[in-house]
Design goal:
Elements lengths: L5 H27 L36 H10 L13 H4 L3 H25 L12 H4 L36 H4 L31 H19 L8 H9 L13 H4 L3 H10 L13 H19 L10 H7 L1
Helix pairs in contact: 7-8, 7-11, 10-11
Length: 326
């Protein structure tokens, strides 16, 4: 991290603020309470040692303006007080902090700077020695990283293959028609593009096709498909036009979606082409969710319908307006 990076330092600054606030509260309480007191006049009374055993001590401060020495002594004698005595104040010399304490505090302050100096030195210098490890079980964990060897397994690999038949949570895709575009019994993650159209492809959409699905398919088509296939599906997208300008022999022009072979393909095969790709076209199963892929298929069917539609395909309330436009 940078030495004076503000954003990464904010959590640490917040924690230090809380820590120092706690120190200030406890330190302030001790300081305003006049503590610590290094000497107390009560410690000079021998009987005071029993105060925490089987006795208790009642102390009356003579500095009170209402204090009456004669009356207080008489009251204590009357109630049966034992060991009533005067306690002289602590001498001024006894209140002073001993010199040895100051020396010890100075030594501690100097020693407290040593870790900070060592950290600053380590940060601004290099070394050929390995860094110090204070928590070795965290720095050197008994584990195997990916793509490493492991003599425990017969194949010598640390990475283990997935257990056959394992299905991740929420990933049980039993409906082949919806997830693969094929009827049950003809499933497969990647179908051959050269298969016949009658080889198990579904011919009807396995979900409800409504306006929202087609609009979603149009949006996904313009993002993932129009760059090559073009807005109208004629194979004249911007990528195609640029590739034709470069005149490179590796480019294969996308087939027009209005060509008769494409128009005759079942919806399941179109879905498979989007999912797994065909020829130069890559598969988009990892980028486009299943429902959105079916939306693209529905939009492609709508594009194809625009070239062969008749007046019977237009709603009766819209047909007069279209005739006026013509």
């Amino acid at each position: 991290k940078p030495l004076f990076s503000i954003i990464p330092s904010l959590p640490i600054a917040f924690e230090l603020a809380i820590l120092f606030a706690a120190f200030a509260v406890f330190g302030g309480a001790i300081a305003f309470g006049g503590m610590p007191k290094l000497a107390n006049q009560k410690f000079r009374i021998p009987s005071f040692a029993r105060a925490t055993d089987d006795r208790y001590v009642l102390a009356v401060d003579s500095r009170d303006k209402c204090f009456d020495l004669v009356g207080t002594r008489a009251l204590l004698d009357e109630v049966g007080g034992e060991g009533v005595t005067d306690i002289p104040p602590v001498a001024t010399s006894e209140k002073r902090i001993p010199r040895t304490v100051w020396m010890a505090a100075a030594v501690l302050c100097v020693l407290a700077l040593v870790p900070a100096v060592l950290i600053a030195k380590a940060r601004n210098s290099t070394s050929t020695k390995p860094r110090l490890s204070f928590v070795s079980d965290m720095d050197h964990q008994p584990k195997f990283k990916p793509q490493t060897t492991n003599s425990f397994f017969p194949d010598g690999r640390s990475m283990r293959p997935q257990v056959e038949g394992t299905v991740a949570r929420d990933d049980l895709r039993e409906d082949d028609q919806y997830y693969l575009g094929r009827n049950s019994g003809h499933g497969g993650l990647a179908a051959n593009a050269a298969e016949k159209d009658s080889d198990g492809w579904v011919t009807a959409f396995p979900l409800t096709v409504d306006e929202s699905l087609i609009r979603r398919g149009r949006e996904r088509y313009q993002i993932f498909c129009a760059t090559c296939h073009g807005q109208g599906g004629d194979g004249d997208g911007l990528v195609t036009l640029r590739a034709l300008e470069l005149e490179q022999g590796t480019w294969v022009k996308p087939t027009s979606l209005h060509a008769e072979p494409i128009r005759g393909q079942p919806v399941g095969r179109l879905f498979n082409s989007i999912s797994n790709g065909v020829r130069k076209m890559p598969g988009y199963a990892s980028q486009i969710p299943v429902r959105d892929r079916w939306g693209i298929v529905a939009y492609v069917r709508a594009l194809q319908r625009t070239r062969t539609a008749t007046s019977a395909d237009v709603p009766s309330e819209i047909l007069p307006n279209m005739r006026e436009l013509n």
